[in-house]
Design goal:
- The chain is mainly α and about 70 residues long.
- It has one domain.
- It contains three helices and no strands.
- Helix 1 packs across helix 2.
- The radius of gyration is 23 Å and the shape is rod-shaped.
- The N and C termini lie far apart (about 55 Å).
- The model has no long low-confidence stretch (mean pLDDT about 90).
C-alpha cells in the first residue's frame, strides 16, 4: 500500500489536516481509519436498532391495534 500515488493537492490537504491535529500524516490517517470504522459500526448498529424497533412496533400494533390515521395527525 506504500506504493499509492496521490495528487499533490490531496497530499497537501492531508498534511494540513494532520498538522492542524498535531499529528504526522501516518498518525492522522490511522486516526481517520479508526473513526471511519466506528462510523461504520454505528451505522450497522443504528440499522439493527431501527429494524428491531420497527418489528416490535409492528408486532405491538398487530396485537393491540395501531394508531388510527386521525390520531397520528394530532
Amino acid at each position: 500500500m506504500a506504493d499509492i500515488e496521490l495528487d499533490d493537492r490531496i497530499v497537501h490537504t492531508f498534511e494540513d489536516l494532520a498538522a492542524d491535529a498535531g499529528l504526522s500524516v501516518p498518525e492522522y490517517l490511522a486516526r481517520l481509519a479508526e473513526e471511519k470504522k466506528r462510523e461504520r459500526a454505528l451505522g450497522v448498529g443504528a440499522a439493527a436498532f431501527r429494524r428491531v424497533t420497527t418489528e416490535a412496533a409492528a408486532a405491538f400494533d398487530a396485537e393491540f391495534g395501531g394508531p388510527t390515521s386521525t390520531s397520528r395527525a394530532a
